[in-house]
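Review form for a predicted model. The reviewer records the input and the model, then writes brief findings.
Reviewer: anonymous (R2)
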Amino acid sequence: MTLADKNGQIALVTGGGTGVGRAIAKALGGAGYTVVISGRREDVLNSAATELANETGAEFLAVSADVGDPASVRALFDRISEKYGRLDLLVNNAGINVPNVPMEELSFEDWNAIVAANLTGAFLCTQQAFRMMKAQNPRGGRIINNGSISATTPRPNTAPYTATKHAITGLTKSTALDGRHFDIACGQIDIGNASTEMTRKMAKGVAQANGEIAIEPTIDASHIANAVTYMASLPLDANVLTMTVMATKMPFVGRG
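Model under review:
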């Protein structure tokens, strides 16, 4: 199957108005998908949808949603079902981080916020996608989760973020297993230092495991978008379970 075969298929990218999510949405639109982008800021989403449509010639629909809220997620998927009648691809990209602080200083509110956005949100969207993908004709679809390299290795003082990303790996594997009999494939992309607003601080230096502060290299988010588009291009009898795309010289392999 080639990318051209995706014309007319429907994709949802959560957190699709900015950063990596926006880059993924743009690449999918260029590959022929009709793309729904979701996020919490309606003005940002609407601007992104208009700009992306002009850049790619594809159809983009902006739907504001809080992925950590079950009612909001249901409304998001109801909108997709009503307008398009199916969903072929879900990219669980939405997520947040909280300030890096020693574990004993982390507030319960910050813990709950990051779990809701990074883990509960991915679960709720996966749950709704399963319901649609099982029932639609043709049956099935694909789910791609944004894992981050924190799904493998933590940074200092990042317990909540690292915990949610490790949990995403478990969700990915369970989704891949439970989706087998329904033609639902699930994979995960682990990203290392894509250049976005979230990683801009790396140009000034970030804490390392040995206590030093070091500037880390980043890569253009388009490389992530191209990788996700490749994963999505496969037929449903083939799957990339995990893929790591990272800045070659970032401190990860060998812990430095």
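Findings: The longest strand covers residues 184-192.
Further findings: The helical segments are 19-30, 42-56, 70-84, 108-135, 159-178, 221-233.
Recommendation: see findings above.
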